[in-house]
Amino acid sequence: MSVLVVGSIALDTVKTPVEEHADLLGGSASYAAVGASFFSPVKLVGIVGDDFPSDHIDFLKGRNIDLGGLQQVPGKTFRWSGEYMWDMNTRETRSVDLNVFEHFTPTLPAGYTDSQIVLLANIAPSLQSHVLDQMSRPQFVIADTMDLWINIARADLEALLSRVDMLILNDGEARQLTGETSLIKAGAKIREMGPKFVAIKKGEHGCLLFGDGEFFSCAAYPLEDIHDPTGAGDTFAGGLAGYLAASVRGPVGFAQLRAAVVFGSVLASFNVEAFSLERLRTLTQSDIDSRYQSFRLMSQFEVIG
Amino acid sequence: MSVLVVGSIALDTVKTPVEEHADLLGGSASYAAVGASFFSPVKLVGIVGDDFPSDHIDFLKGRNIDLGGLQQVPGKTFRWSGEYMWDMNTRETRSVDLNVFEHFTPTLPAGYTDSQIVLLANIAPSLQSHVLDQMSRPQFVIADTMDLWINIARADLEALLSRVDMLILNDGEARQLTGETSLIKAGAKIREMGPKFVAIKKGEHGCLLFGDGEFFSCAAYPLEDIHDPTGAGDTFAGGLAGYLAASVRGPVGFAQLRAAVVFGSVLASFNVEAFSLERLRTLTQSDIDSRYQSFRLMSQFEVIG
């Protein structure tokens, strides 16, 4: 089964305390689509300008990503520039140039509308809803969001929430959306807003998954050095959605989501080891399997008599 | 096998955004000893004044805690008063009256010096070392510490570290002790200072356990409401040490420590559900077993075909 991914495609300039790189492949949909592509075929919906490097197109195609939903239009590609502080946790956005992304309307080609697993990567919630408007009945819809939309498009976001099966957001956003300081209360409250499942990402502290009376706490992989956190959350969402598309037969249950969250975390842990999507270019199935086993080892405990 | 616990015994006044209680049983050794007592017999070393309520003595005795090492002297018991902010994570100390604790010298009765499992709960590192000076060869020594000692008694703490098997401290203290922002690097660096094992407590984010090439990430139990975080870390250390004393035959290995960390987390999760040690007064083995199973459930994942 393939996964439909819609979101932003960008050229990023990223500065960390030790390095700076310009014109990197970025955007929520790029990370999410490539993350998902390790598990299942992907259909990508997004927009780029006529300056978008053909190398990036070739890379995406090479990852078995269907670009039938990629609009390439006159003008410049969306550009984002950000800087990470010394702790690699705090990020400042230095500039945002929406360019062709400003008037993006995601349009699904004929072969896309019956996709069963849908990942609405981080873009305006009105656009995420517009994608759902075009679809027949998808089996499982995952939405990612960010603080910006909670601030400026809350009504759109709430309308979207009633239409999705799972929301992914980080700890700060969960607190902002619900007004709850406890993430346990926040997770429960978001479920009341619509999504049956909620994943709250906590960066170096891992991820919490909430379902109907069920709860899963996923550890973060113990990385000594993080080279570029950009796209970690998008890669997580992509890996999660790709794993579901590859493995789910019938209704998506909590057991499948547990494993999906671990595979998403595996993908994200690789992604932050290098700038942009560089690490994912060389990542192998064997790398993924080996790190999945590490997640098992580091989470495992049993009573010893 | 019994566990030797040394630390402070206090009468606490604790204020949270919703409640305030005075003259509560507190202190690192009280929490640690009671935590350990759910798994093994405990020998307690500490000091109280002649104002220490006999009810507290009776409670400790009733928990199968040997009070042969408890000094009761003329004067007032150590008093501590603190206030938790709205998020229940930030704490301000309002007052500290050391009283009889100021000139405390822990002295081990004859039957205590050959204890095999030793928990040096949070007191000055020079006193923790003084306890070890009086002992024959304990099998496994665990020390807890706090930011105060890293600030004012770093040399004493470093001298202690070369003599203990395991150090327990929180995330902020680990960063402070090592100068590393990454907890993964901090854990490795503390191991180089002496302890074969390090547990870094992260409050609502759980706990990281470091060994020789081994790593365990323990989730925190998802509590909706925390009534009093005081003593959570001491109870964790006590539960951990008590479990080891009850279960270990031969050298302590990483597998046993994984389970010990989970049982410590189970005990701590109960302790914060009420003020002081109130929740531990009614806690049953069945409560502990049931929450241990919850820890398994919330940490468990498997690939679904």
List the topology elements.
The structure is a homodimer of 305-residue chains.
Chain A: E1 3-6, E2 10-15, E3 20-26, H1 28-37, E4 42-49, H2 54-62, E5 65-73, E6 79-84, E7 91-97, E8 117-120, H3 125-133, E9 140-144, H4 147-152, H5 154-161, E10 166-170, H6 171-178, H7 183-192, E11 197-201, E12 207-210, E13 215-218, H8 232-247, H9 254-271, H10 278-282, H11 285-299
Parallel strand pairs in A: 1-4, 1-8, 2-6, 4-5, 8-9, 9-10, 10-11
Antiparallel strand pairs in A: 2-3, 6-7, 11-12, 12-13
Summary keywords:
305 residues, UDP-N-acetylmuramoyl-L-alanine:D-glutamate ligase, globular, 13 strands, alpha/beta, nine-stranded mixed sheet
